[in-house]
Amino acid sequence: MQSLDSVLITGGGTLGAQSALQFALHGKKVTIYGRSEDSIARAKQRVERFRTPYTQDTEFDASAVAEAIESIDYTTQIERAGAVDIVFECVAETTEAKTAIYKAMRPHLQPETIVATNSSTVLPSHLAPLLPYEAQFVAIHFANEIWKRPAAEIMGHPGTDAGVFEQAKEFAAQVGMVPLPIFKERSGYILNSLLIPFVESALELWGAGVSDPKTIDKTWEIVMDSLGPFKVLDVIGMRTVYAVLKSREAKGIPGTGELAQVVMRDYIEQGRLGVEAGAGFYDYDEQGQPNVD
């Protein structure tokens, strides 16, 4: 089985940045692709933001984390997609963004290159036709804060080579994640199929004026002894929440469009993007702990 040692991450957003550090800490040769020098600069800032949580919350010491950060390469050349073992696509959760990146990398991919999407909503079979070697395409979906929540949902499409599916599982394990195989395509995978109705119900309660986010969270946390839905939304990040809601609106799911507008107007446009920005439904301290007063 081919060893997947070199990785190109397309997209240096919140998940792309933490994936880069996670991969580098586990011995992978990592490059982040950005469309411009400004994109690269933002990606470097995001990677740097994860220095503290990886030092404080994992088995890696400050020296190992510093070495991993230093080892990450950056490029604006999509041609690099043809020079790695696996491309890990982490662009925005929209069909338009994903279509653009696949069309850009398409001429440069080699027959043996594996391409993995981190999408949680777009089915692999919808993206596979954009690539020259469809059998080499698979989904490897991570949640946020992967150093604390190392779930890796692995899902192929009908044309995914069985060996590629196994390689994806092995790669996830090598980078410290827990492979969770999914045997049939489903938008939302396992995690978001469970999570989205949960957080949408919370948003609907809030949007209808039934209660406020902190009270809704407190209710859940007292009874269920687990993170409340609005804290979960802050971890996910408002941009991803908005993209998921817009995707569900496009599928005709009632109420999701209105919820998307609320998230855009009251949070994204106000810079309250979630834990990554230090503010979302809650304000957060430097350690990422919410102020619940």
From TrEMBL:
Which pathway, per its entry?
Lipid metabolism; butanoate metabolism
> Which parts of the sequence are marked as the site Important for catalytic activity?
H141
Q: What is its EC number?
A: 1.1.1.157
* Gene Ontology MF terms in the entry: 3-hydroxybutyryl-CoA dehydrogenase activity; NAD+ binding
A GO BP term, please? fatty acid metabolic process
Q: Where is the 3-hydroxyacyl-CoA dehydrogenase C-terminal domain?
A: 188-284
3-hydroxyacyl-CoA dehydrogenase NAD binding domain residues: 7-184
- UniProt enzyme class: oxidoreductase
UniProt KW keywords: Oxidoreductase
Highest taxon in the source lineage: Bacteria
- PANTHER family the record matches: 3-HYDROXYACYL-COA DEHYDROGENASE FAMILY PROTEIN, 3-HYDROXYBUTYRYL-COA DEHYDROGENASE
Assigned protein family = Belongs to the 3-hydroxyacyl-CoA dehydrogenase family.
What name does UniProt use for this protein?
Putative 3-hydroxybutyryl-CoA dehydrogenase
Give the species this sequence originates from: Corynebacterium pseudopelargi
Q: What is the lineage of its organism?
A: Bacteria, Bacillati, Actinomycetota, Actinomycetes, Mycobacteriales
Q: Supply the gene name.
A: mmgB
